[in-house]
Amino acid sequence: MKTYTERYAETLTQKLEPSLSKEAIISLIEVPKHRGHGDLAFPCFQLAKEWKRSPQAIAKTLAVQLNDPLFTSFQAAGPYINAFLNREVVAQETLTEILQKEEDYGAHDFGEGQVIVLDLSSPNIAKPFSMGHLRSTVIGNAIAQLAEKCGFETVRLNYIGDWGTQFGKLIAAYKRWGNEEAVKRAPIAELFKLYTRFHTEAVQLPELEDEGRYWFKELEAGNEEALSLWRWFREESIQAFNAIYSLLGVRFDSLNGEAFYNDKMEPVVTELQEKDLLEESDGARVVRLEASIPPALIKKKDGATLYVTRDLASALYRKQHYHFDYSFYVAGNEQTLHFNQLIQVLKKMGYCWAETMEHIPFGMILKEGKKMSTRQGKVVFLEQVLADIIQQAVQNIREKNPELLDQERVAEQVGVGAVIYHDLKHHRQNDVEFSYDDMLRFEGNTGPYLQYTHARALSILRKSKLSKPVYKEGATVTDQMWELITQLTYFPGHIADAFEWRDPSLLAKSIYKIAQCFNHYYAHTRILVGGDQEQKIALTKATAIVIKEGLRLLGIQAPEEM
Ligand code: ARG
């Protein structure tokens, strides 16, 4: 369905073409800050330049000429023409559409026939699943869901950090101090313990570093003992990661990590050489880029390949394998230079599809204003964070709704939803202050507040006798109803915006606003008594549908009761 902005633009276009095109008019239309100024406003400044008349005079003349049954009036206010939508018509159209389409409401088709691959999460084995990886996981997943809602086909790739010199150190550490049972019990924590112990003891015992190097060489050479330890560490860690993913409700289409590209880098180096792009610099091999970007290091002096070498191989493989139209990398701000170099090198190689690769960066998670560090002792394990928050959610639920069945399951949905929403409500590039209290509040801009609003709407629907309400014309559209309906009409546009800006926070804001308007409406209206029963129930149901779908797109479940 067309948006009301588009429909206002169409009415204006009839009078304004050829001076302004429909597209130009759409981009000029605003939503007035105050309701008294109508629902949509068109500023006449641009026309004033064209027509060499004052914008005020133009607004005055045009306002009386416009005529469209979708609007009850057009009023000139200074240089603006304010349009007032016909509330009954909009209520009828919007609610009918939502009740018919249900969770398909807000879908777009502009992505149809196109594939987006997303590189998300990508934690490193032997290091804990960091808060940064949590951000990559939930932001990446939400962008993938938004892309699907816009018609794209998506492929979620988890580029696990499962290769590198850290495995030599880990094997060395395990051989000295390791214990099979301990690793099996808590793989992520135990491997991390071994890894940090290696680093602490290496200060006193420099030969440890040699052992680490030795084992990494063995690993690269295919030594069976080294390989089987590596395989085992990898398996155990992936199982532990999977427990986190299943709690977060995120799935992947591929777990091809860094190791998968071991045999795919040499062909890239050869290709770079053949294309005459490799230069020598202090014995290392580099690709020189534009002056503003430092050269990309492809091979070290000792022949070792680098992060960018591997990502070149993975980009080429992904293009061949998935034929993507877009390729997104959801990774922290600090990797901006890396992805810049990656894209530039591919362009120099003659791959113009490198233009369709995008780094989607995000801010850090802070604790009391400081970066949550992975340095020894200060590490926060995500499993622990999730377990703690679910525990607190259980307590909250017991206090609020002791009768509730299935408390454990609901607490999991609420706790996980709280963590995800807390992350996604911030503009992606901003840093996020980590706070359990802020996540779990039932009031204000939190996941539980949205889930609670949804559950409240469902409880009203359960009490009503109308199982399939239909919105019939003739109801009085009160101001509170109108605010809510207006927000519901914005939802499809906000989905497209959130996708275009690769920013789930735009969707989070949209559902938060809807929930606020619904609670305001609920506070002023006795939904289950008095006139216009069916319309009020229809509005309640439409609201529940939209909040649930909005939460789903963010990766958050909406319990029916809580
Ligand atoms: N494993 C990397 C890290 O933790 C993130 C990988 C991002 N993806 C990529 N293709 N480089 O920093």
UniProtKB/TrEMBL annotation:
Residues 450-562 form the DALR anticodon binding domain. CDD domains: ArgRS_core. The keyword Zinc does not apply. Residues 6-85 form the Arginyl tRNA synthetase N-terminal domain. Monomer. A motif ('HIGH' region) lies at residues 123-133. It is found in: Cytoplasm. HAMAP family: Arg_tRNA_synth. GO terms for biological process: arginyl-tRNA aminoacylation. InterPro entries: Arg-tRNA-ligase (IPR001278), Arg-tRNA-synth_N (IPR005148), Arg-tRNA-synth_N_sf (IPR036695), ArgRS_core (IPR035684), DALR_anticod-bd (IPR008909), Rossmann-like_a/b/a_fold (IPR014729), tRNAsynth_Ia_anticodon-bd (IPR009080). It comes from the Bacteria. Pfam families: Arg_tRNA_synt_N, DALR_1, tRNA-synt_1d. GO terms for cellular component: cytoplasm. It catalyses: tRNA(Arg) + L-arginine + ATP = L-arginyl-tRNA(Arg) + AMP + diphosphate. This is Arginine--tRNA ligase. The gene is argS1. Belongs to the class-I aminoacyl-tRNA synthetase family. GO terms for molecular function: arginine-tRNA ligase activity; ATP binding. Gene3D superfamilies: Arginyl tRNA synthetase N-terminal domain (3.30.1360.70), HUPs (3.40.50.620), Isoleucyl-tRNA Synthetase, Domain 1 (1.10.730.10). Its EC number is 6.1.1.19.
